[in-house]
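Human: Here is a favour to ask of a fellow structure person. Comparing notes only helps if you start from a blank page. I am asking you to supply a protein in sequence and structure-token form. Write it directly below this note and I will take it from there.

Assistant:
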Amino acid sequence: MSALDRIRAIATLLPETDERASHGQPSFFVAGKQFAQFRDDHHGDGLTVVCVRTSGTDEQAMLLDAAPQTYRRPAYLGASGWVSIDLSGDVDWTLVEDRIARSWELAAPRRLLEAGGR
């Protein structure tokens, strides 16, 4: 299974998730808000990553400092506190699943969270 197929399988299990292209990249939305974006060689950077929301720049900085081999500050989305997770090599898919689910929670409307969320 390709990295995109795995990301798609994780993201589309979350309630009311829609997939569509955003800036040419496969992206996942809940209630019109993006919560994940898959990038493969984005602008020729040679990386395969999934970009996800964090609670803000403090959490972003903590993740970047704690695990620089896993997390990066992605172009464009990084200014809004997002991180990218490296999908090359030995990927911790449980971590990827958890970060995508957390990102969904940060984007989902209250009604979905109150209904039990994920």
